[in-house]
Each structure stands twice: as structure tokens, then as C-alpha cells.
Amino acid sequence: MKLENVVPWGRNLEEYQNMFQLSEENLHSKILGYGDGPSSFNFELTKLGGNIISIDPIYKFTKDEIQQRVDETSSVISEQLKQNQNDFVWKNIKSENNI
After folding, report:
1. Containing domain of residue 18, as a range?
2. Total domain count for the chain?
3. What are the beta bridge partners of residue 54?
4. pLDDT by residue for the chain (99 residues), tens digit each?
5. SS3 of residue 69 by DSSP
6. How buried is 73 (Cβ within 10 angstroms: 0-12 exposed, 13-18 middle, 19+ buried)?
7. Closest to 53 (Cα-Cα) out of 61, 43, 63, 67
8. Beta bridge partners of 51
9. Strand partners, 55
10. What pTM, to 2 d.p., does this model score?
């Protein structure tokens, strides 16, 4: 895997809860997050006392390398969201400006 082929994207705890319909009971279970990328889900849940392990092939790169790639791709992602905004359901996130 080459980092230049990766477009890192992550989600937070609230987004994971909504996306996977995670209950409080689920959040107190052992959780394996696969393909979490640079999401804050693990950090937020761990801070609340959760028992989570995240794995992702991108983790073979350093924090600085991942951050650099996020910086390189974030404007591309934003532009693609604007160009394709009519292809998304803006229910939970009201517009591409709120991402």
C-alpha cells in the first residue's frame, strides 16, 4: 500500500453511533474498529472508558505522514463534495460546509 494512493477520511463517535446504530450496551462491549483511518472514534470512546482497538493498513505510516496526506487531500475532497453535492442526502450533515 502506498500512502499517495490513500485518501484518509475519518468520523467521530456520534457519526459511528448513528451509522452503526450503536447502543450504550454496544459502546460498553469490546469493539474492533477496522479501517478507521484518521477517525476520532477510538479516541473519544477510550476517553469515555470504552474498550476499543482500531486497526487500519494506514497505521503503518507515522502520524506526520498521515497528517501530511490529510492536508494534501482535504481540499480535493472538499471540491468533490461541492461538485457532487446533489448526489448526497444532507440529513445529518446539512451541507458540505459542515464537514
Report:
1. 3-86
2. 1
3. 33
4. 888 888 888 889 999 999 999 999 999 999 999 999 999 999 999 999 999 999 999 999 999 999 999 999 999 888 888 888 888 887 877 666 656
5. helix
6. middle
7. 43
8. 30
9. 34
10. 0.77
